[in-house]
Amino acid sequence: MKNKMFFFILSVKEFLFIVVFFIFSLSFSPKELNALEGNLGKSLFDNHCAGCHLNGGNIIRRSKNLKISSLKRNGIEDSNEIAKIARQGIGIMDGYENLLGENGDQIVADWIWDQAQKAWIQG
Ligand code: HEC
Asked: What is the average pLDDT across 74-102?
């Protein structure tokens, strides 16, 4: 009897563990995942782009910066275009495909596009 009781308590514990784990994984909302991706976008930018594009500028060709007016003037209409430039380069800028890692081109591009919408005012 005692043994059976013990086994019962154990399985309740296990059951609770599974429930808690399940709720935890559900509570990881898309918004939080987006925030994680945002952090990754920012760190990719800081590591690979900010050297020339600090705060969305361009220290080499000032008119080819990452502000929305410049992007649109140069025919860059969405984050996919930025991802392509990040991968392949453009004009005198090299491509960074090898440094950005899997999906990094799109993640950094999404982050840049988002910053451009916010006029690069961090917050
Ligand atoms: C070594 C300096 C340098 C680095 C690092 C660099 N860029 Fe550039 N970037 C440039 C230059 C120079 C241009 C202008 C190229 C041209 O038109 O000849 C440019 C242009 C661009 C443009 C086009 C902007 C416009 O308004 O036309 C985008 C988008 C861009 N870079 C994204 C990136 C991203 C994303 C990264 C990081 C993965 C990055 N760049 C890293 C120098 C750099």
From this structure: 97
33 ligand 1 Cβ < 6 A = no
- Amino acid (one-letter) located at 19: V
Tokens 């990094």 sit on residue: 104
Looking at the DSSP bridge assignments, the partners of residue 48 are none
pTM > 0.70 = yes
60 Cβ closer than 6 Å to some ligand 1 atom = yes
Ligand 1 binding pocket includes 75 (Cβ within 6 Å): no
Domains of the chain: which residue ranges? 37-117
Q: Of 62, 112, 50, 47, whose CA–CA distance to 83 is shortest?
A: 112
Instruction: Pinpoint the alpha helices (H) of 1-123.
Output: 2-27, 30-48, 50-53, 68-73, 79-88, 97-100, 104-117
Structure tokens at 83: 């991802």
**C-alpha–C-alpha distance, residues 42 and 84, integer Å:** 18
Average pLDDT over residues 34-52: 91
The pLDDT-based confidence of 48 (bands split at 50, 70, 90) is: very high
For the 37-117 domain, the top CATH level (class) is: mainly alpha
